[in-house]
Amino acid sequence: LDPIAVEIKAGQTPTFDVSAAFESLEATMRTAAAPARSLELRIVYGGERSVVVDGAHYLSWNEVDRVVWA
Question: What is the DSSP letter of 55?
Answer without folding.
Answer: T
